[in-house]
């Protein structure tokens, strides 16, 4: 997230878009795996954090 926001500040929008796309792809793939994990796993919290990061990059 910080890398993408830094690139946006530097005017490197294409690179920031690639980072955002990569983060979205990771999030999308992990949403398939996380439901099969134990409820005690903190992965669900990490997924919430990742979604917030993707949203920050997009905005």
From TrEMBL:
Superkingdom of source: Eukaryota
PANTHER family: TRANSLIN AND TRANSLIN ASSOCIATED PROTEIN X
Organism taxonomic ancestry: Eukaryota, Viridiplantae, Streptophyta, Embryophyta, Tracheophyta
Source organism of the structure: Trifolium medium
UniProt protein name: Translin-associated protein X-like
One Pfam family matching this protein: Translin
Molecular function GO terms recorded: sequence-specific DNA binding
